[in-house]
Amino acid sequence: MKVNYLRLSITDFCNLHCIYCRSSFSRNVHLAHSELLSFEEMELVIHWMAKWGIKKVRITGGEPLLKKSIATLVNMIQKIPGIDEITMTTNGTKLRQFALELKQAGLKRVNVSLDSLNRKNFLKITGDDKLYEVLEGIKTAQKVGLNPVKINTVVLKGINDVEIPDFIKFSMENSVAVRFIEYMPIGKQNKKNLYFSNITVKRIIEKDFGVLLPLNFSYKGEPAKYYKVGESKAIVGFISPISYPFCKDCNRLRLTADGKLYPCLLSNSFENVKKVLRGGGGEGEVKHLFDLALLKKVNLRNSPHLAYQKRPMFQIGG
Ligand code: SAM
């Protein structure tokens, strides 16, 4: 499997405080501006990586839409020869205001993280009363053509598992694919008791909505497996890193907001691109780091070991 996909985290800051990601961190804890890669540094590194095989970039964070000049970055990446597609993962709270600008700058699609359709539960999970903003953001993204909008829902035992049928109805009524993601116990947030298997999610859906029929339009390397829900037009996806690990098909590297290149979400080993860049290193030196990350990736794919990541998802870029 060729590595052609970069997940680019542009900030570790987030305006939500999800119980499984950021809630044990103080609200305003984030890296100093000087520690983050600048947009120009990101552009340079992606320009090189495009020569070494990267074709797709997904922008993430932290919350990427907290960067007011985000459309400028999308536009910079969009101009890089060899980059075919730029997408984004966002919590959607600021999507309504940025959607059109992002589309015009060259963003193809968005995935919106949404763990509850119930205002009280949304507040309980995220620490913020912003469900309305997210729903408006989803509608706006669809309207401006950032389609297909996909919803990412982490199912948490005893917290939002009761909402699984509501998400299927939401998918049917709003023409969005919902993707159920298994909670990964990583970082110091590690709360194993929240884990809810996608095997059970499937069973719940089939009980209420009929048989799930497998679809095979996932592109190679996509972690989600998609199904059609019963007789309806609704499509549901499952990302099951725990019950159905997909390491051998993984085609991505991750560059964190502080310039560290990770071969894998679950690896604690990284190459320090920022240090090399700011120490005067150029294309050759960064290529060496890229090759090291690729080598580690190949080894991890051959013998995956789920050594749980010490950094929480908002610092790695989920
Ligand atoms: N702020 C953006 C967002 O909310 O989509 C991007 C960053 S967020 C870290 C990316 C995704 O990671 C979200 O869908 C979030 O639910 C997911 N995530 C965070 N911690 C996770 C965990 N421990 N297990 C599974 N998914 C997790």
**CATH architecture field of one domain:** Alpha-Beta Barrel
Large-scale geometry: globular
The average pLDDT value, as a whole number, equals 93
CATH topology of one domain, anyone? TIM Barrel
List of distinct ligands in this structure: S-adenosylmethionine
Biggest sheet strand line-up: 7-8-9-6-5-4-3-2-1-10-11-12
How far apart are the first and last residues' alpha carbons, in Å?
A: 21 Å
Describe the overall structure.
By secondary structure, the protein is an alpha/beta fold. The protein has a domain at 5-149 and 245-315: Aldolase class I (TIM Barrel, Alpha-Beta Barrel). Helix content is 34%, strand content 18%. It contains ten helices and twelve strands. A twelve-stranded mixed beta sheet has the order 7-8-9-6-5-4-3-2-1-10-11-12. It is globular and about 60 Å long. The chain starts with a strand and ends with a helix. The site of S-adenosylmethionine has 19 residues, from strand 3, strand 5 and helix 10.
In terms of topology, how is this protein built?
Elements: E1 5-9, H1 39-51, E2 56-60, H2 70-78, E3 85-90, H3 95-105, E4 109-113, H4 119-126, H5 131-144, E5 150-155, H6 164-174, E6 177-182, H7 198-209, E7 212-215, E8 225-229, E9 235-239, E10 252-255, E11 260-262, E12 271-272, H8 273-278, H9 283-302, H10 313-316
Parallel strand pairs: 1-2, 1-10, 2-3, 3-4, 4-5, 5-6, 6-9
Antiparallel strand pairs: 7-8, 8-9, 10-11, 11-12
Helix pairs in contact: 2-3, 3-5
This protein binds S-adenosylmethionine.
